[in-house]
């Protein structure tokens, strides 16, 4: 309960700015984000760490959108059952999206939140951008 | 039509975060739950509480359905008995299967989100403006309309959409009838009452192919029927007089076959070369190179791969999250019907889970400390609330459909799929790291406040 008390006392951290990592269309319409390191994050996080996060996201999206035997099979099966199969089963894409959500949550907890950053899942932005919210640095005090 | 086309400058001051006032606490109890479809800025109409999406004008869809149903009805009633007696019982079986397939594909095409791109949030739009307004001059000018990028060594121009406030991804086009940017935009089809885009192109194609088979089948059967009748010693005129419905069917099928078969052939060509109707009409890739395939940067240069990619590729999710709740409702974790899995209409249950997981932990901390009065600035949108019941009744929707304005109140009983609620509760208790590292960032509040500022139809997507 001491935490409650201190939270009310503290000013809530405000959003200092937001950085948007845009899509990279160099390979066509597949979901892929630019790995260029935004200058606003220079003081907050390692370039390599950031690039690794984005690259992993890109790989996950590529996995979701991969054209291969499995996705064709799913497509054909869906067509034959007049797409009613999706009433019982999740599409491959949806499964990977869940994986991506877990990954982002994990990254936020381990890497970004301690540095005062928050990654927003691109699906909430229509797969247009990866939104990174930068919070102002505040001394939290002994809020434990 | 493009009434939102005129560019409006985004006021940077409106984007600044203001501290939460006590006023929001008072407002919290007055607000009811709102789903995102209710504040959707495009001109679409929604039925069954956001499960079904249609374009604003579905004028010809009832006609399409009516023609199909009437023709098939006449066929089963008047031609089938004769043909079953004289030929085989498989005729109505095949006819019935084709009919079911056609209607299914048609409804799927009409009711599926074609690949609508949600509009840019105010932050994003301001960021884009900042990036292109590099001159730093005080006189404000609208952003340039195009941006050039390289796709597979081919220069492609991305246009800026003034309505959606973003640079359109490649192959995306803004449909003025629906007032949305649609990914891999093919065309707006009045016959199905919806745009045809990335997510429903395969349904559209299966609709026209199966309709070609159906019309050809009925045409053939009717001809056979009349021929067999006249072979029994009667004249042609007499046969026709005995079965006048067959003439009606013949006329309908005859005129349909030309257009439907032509359309099927055209779309088969488009699929084989991985083009959209939009690109083909504009001649985007035709005159650039001598070999037509290498002109198109999206083509896989193999007919089979192109076909498989378009028709059997992975089904992308709907990006607009129609049934997700606006951020106010994250204060009441018990109710979130958006977590229901509705794959036929691809409701964004998983995306809503994403919302919950990335910010839910931070926000639940806030909520647990009693500050759960998130004021939703949800800009009410009147267009989706125009319920044209006539369209819905003709489409014979199930009796369980609710009218749009009867949104369930927050206290409504949870829908049967409660497993996702359990999932969410488990999220609630984990992530101690967040609690310690960062107290309430009030992220959702920030987003909500931002949503208030522009007056041109932004929805405060969390």
TrEMBL record, chain A:
It is a lipid-anchor. GO terms for biological process: Golgi to plasma membrane protein transport; protein targeting to membrane. The keyword Lipoprotein applies. Its main location: Golgi. The keyword Membrane applies. InterPro entries: Golgin_A_7/ERF4, Ras_palmitoyltransferase. Pfam families: Erf4 (PF10256). One of its GO terms (cellular component) is palmitoyltransferase complex. It is found in: Golgi apparatus membrane. Keywords: Golgi apparatus, Lipoprotein, Membrane, Palmitate. Residues 19-131 form the Golgin subfamily A member 7/ERF4 domain. May be involved in protein transport from Golgi to cell surface. The ZDHHC9-GOLGA7 complex is a palmitoyltransferase specific for HRAS and NRAS. Belongs to the ERF4 family. PANTHER family: GOLGI AUTOANTIGEN, GOLGIN SUBFAMILY A, 7, GOLGIN SUBFAMILY A MEMBER 7. This is Golgin subfamily A member 7. It comes from Eleginops maclovinus (Patagonian blennie).
